[in-house]
């Protein structure tokens, strides 16, 4: 990544340009942000080729705006995809990278009354451009959080933990004693699924890639609450259900990988089960056997005039989840309540990353 100063001219289409233009007419007493350093990409492409550090001059903080000093912002796989230009929703370059993070309020505009300097805040819902040292945005963008939250958790709560939380709620009614199955169990989403499921009394069967040190990885996931952890090669057998032990056949599976790893999730699913795809890390398509579609249905027993019938209730379901779509409906308050709940778990050490 190169570090370069940026001339006003080359910033002509940059989103914060409105602020630079305003600088020329600002009253002398206007409240200004400190200069900021941002990770910017001018075009789509490989992140190591198209990103650079840019120095951004101070901007005016308007009445209803808050200037936040960013403390931490993660690099999510989707951030990389946005820079590459392959993520469905993305800012037009030139743009600042990043989508979530945590910061400390540096200064507030004169009409801001919910936030004060020193408060810790996250953009909620998450919003583009968190990879910079100072951000000026409207008060309503920011959600105040507990300052005692470990920084790395505060910076990452709005995407992966929320995804895990929603996927455990939105597809199948899970009861204590049920189980789920997932691949990419080492991912942050996967780790959150393990722990949030455990809090509901739901067991988890976890699939990881083959690797050196697999035993240590299994051990780490079990410390988080995983019931079973298998490498993909351990599941190359006809009847994986033999490996369930005391766990019930899972009604819900999560696929973050595609290809063979998705097939392994399907192998564990009980008849009438649901597999939710939320990621495609292997970039391979999902292949489903014809017999799964035809025969993996659930039968219910119906009694009618002293006769018993078996009625096919539900067959295999393949579903998808995208947090951004879930958030696009008017769910700001619900979203912030869930974030507070997840942050409480994080502060209590009940939701963590290995
Ligand atoms: N749909 C949504 O709303 C939504 C929301 C959040 C995240 N996501 C997606 O969820 C996925 C995980 O995100 P994250 O931030 O939790 O990721 P992460 O912590 O960076 O973990 C990546 C995971 O993918 C696995 N992986 C990487 N490359 C792979 C490959 N070529 N084949 C198989 N597995 C591979 C890794 O396994 P190893 O341990 O073996 O390296 C690891 O388990 C990403 O695709 C992300 O875009 C989707």
From TrEMBL:
Cellular localisation: Mitochondrion
Keyword annotations: Fatty acid biosynthesis, Fatty acid metabolism, Lipid biosynthesis, Lipid metabolism, Mitochondrion, NADP, Oxidoreductase, Transit peptide
Annotated protein name in UniProt: Enoyl-[acyl-carrier-protein] reductase, mitochondrial
Pfam families according to UniProt: ADH_N, ADH_zinc_N
Domain of life: Eukaryota
Enzyme Commission designation: 1.3.1.104
Record carries keyword Transcription regulation: no
Statement: the UniProt record of this protein carries the keyword Lipid biosynthesis: yes
Stretches that traverse the bilayer: none
